[in-house]
Amino acid sequence: MKYLLLVLGVVLTFRGYSQRCMVKETMPFFNEARKGVQTSSRDTLPGEVIIVPVVIHVLYNTNDQNIPDQHIIDQINSLNRDFRRKNADTVNTPAPFKSVAADSRIVFCIAKTDPDGKSTTGIIRKYTRVKAFFPDDQMKYSSKGGDDAWDASEYFNIWVCNLFGRTLGYSVMPGGNPALDGVVIQTNVFGNGPYLSAPFNKGRTLTHETGHWLGLKHLWGDSVCGSDGIDDTPPQEGSSTGCPDFPKTSSCSINPYGDMFMDFMDFTDDACMNMFSTGQVREMRSQFAKGGFRNSFLASTVCESSPVEEAPQVPPDGEVDLQMYPNPFATQLIIRGNNFDEVNGKAVRIYNVQGKLVQEITIQSQTTIVNTSQLPSGVYIAIFENANKRKIFKIVKAGYSGNR
Question: Is 366 in contact with 392 (CB distance < 8 Å)?
């Protein structure tokens, strides 16, 4: 009887409060973890689009939970559109908040190389006898019916499984135990399409949890009129649910515009979320800066030929029609500008992983052949810039093993 009451209490707890997410705090050993953080030995470059390799752990007890590859690709594409502010519903951002809505210049791709250097789909499918996991991290261990994490310094681990109760997902903040690092998403909210039911059918649960994985807090700081530590997200009394009318104000509001309830770090329905703020983007990108918890991802090359949108090629600014190949390259690199007028006389600068300029090429013909025999094997960032356009390439000199 006592066991039955305990289970009933847990059920009521979950059903009485529809949790969009549950953040797993890592602060007790946050500072100690920072001391040993693995880095790529370079800082982010100005305007660099950061590419994050993803591995998906699909845990299923029934056939319906063994979601198809297309659902996974739909979800990662949705994640990329949200993080690059290319989601079609940006038009719904209220005018007072449009000025701070920002492109994070972070994209995600499904890994094509596993930790042993072998080819992979980046999707792990595993039958589990566990009918529903509690949000207690057991899905992250093979010994407990889940699946072990891949190296968290190189891969963003996402576990997709049936979660008990009303929790849609949860994340570990940066700086935690590498074996637990990543996010967990409820199977029936993972994806973006008619195969999911509203109001959580546009993949925004993963967008929200990925924000936590990159250091963002809830807008209200998980306290009444609390703070998320971001200057351009206004204080609010608490979480928002459903799809509020704008403006939504409370006694905590500091201006007539009220809550930024359309921000991805609130609890509103998927259809009402559409933005990250400039301050939030700054916080997320700081995780990749030198000394940041996610800095090691800057040296990753495990996403080549990923099937999702925007990866592995770095999305351009504007419409510069510039190609750089082969990639990987050996002793020569070819730069081709199909619209010669917009690239003629402009420079392509190549930087090593320490951020040092190692070669500069001035484009003087439609096709430029660059002698790269003097460059040691490794990863490089090539940047083309003119007055108002930029394009960035991550390129690899042949012979680079990917080991650090």
Answer: no
User: DSSP letter string over 104-127?
Assistant: --EEEEE-SB-TTS-B--SEEEEE
Task: Please report the beta strands in 219-261, taking only residues with DSSP state E, as ranges in sequence order.
Answer: none
Active site (annotated) includes residue 360: no
What CATH number is attached to the domain comprising 275?
3.40.390.10
Q: What is the pTM of this model?
A: 0.75
One domain, residues 78 and 213: yes
The count of structural domains within the chain is 2
**Angstrom distance (rounded) from CA 240 to CA 258:** 12
Do 173 and 126 lie in one domain? The reply is: yes
Shared domain for 110 and 172, answered yes or no, is: yes
Rounded to 5 degrees, φ, ψ at 299 are: -100, 5
Distances (CA, A) of 146 to 75, 177, 278, 363: 21, 17, 37, 53
Q: Is the pLDDT of residue 13 over 60?
A: no
- 149-170 pLDDT, tens digit per residue, is 999 999 999 999 999 999 999 9
> pLDDT digit string (tens) for 260-290?
999 999 999 999 999 999 999 999 999 999 9
DSSP character string of 27-61: GGGHHHHHHT----SSPPPTTPPEEEEEEEEEEES
**Helix residue spans in 261-404 (DSSP H):** 278-286, 340-343
What would the pLDDT profile of 48-91 be if each residue is shown by its tens digit? 889 999 999 999 999 999 999 999 999 999 999 999 999 999 99
122 lies in the same domain as 271: yes
pLDDT in the model for residue 44: 86
Task: Supply the pLDDT for residue 366.
Answer: 87
- Enclosing domain of residue 172: 19-218+265-286
The verdict on residue 147 lying in a domain is yes
Q: Which of 154, 209, 309, 310 is catalytic?
A: 209
Does residue 38 sit within a domain?
yes
Q: Are residues 194 and 327 in the same domain?
A: no
Percent of the chain with pLDDT over 90: 63
| CA distances in angstroms from 347 to 211, 329, 360, 370, 371, listed in the order given | 35, 19, 7, 12, 15
30 occurs within a structural domain: yes
- Residues 184, 269, single domain; the answer is yes
- Any domain includes 326: yes
Q: Which two tokens stand for residue 105?
A: 């210049």
pLDDT, tens digit, for every residue of 361-370?
988 888 899 9
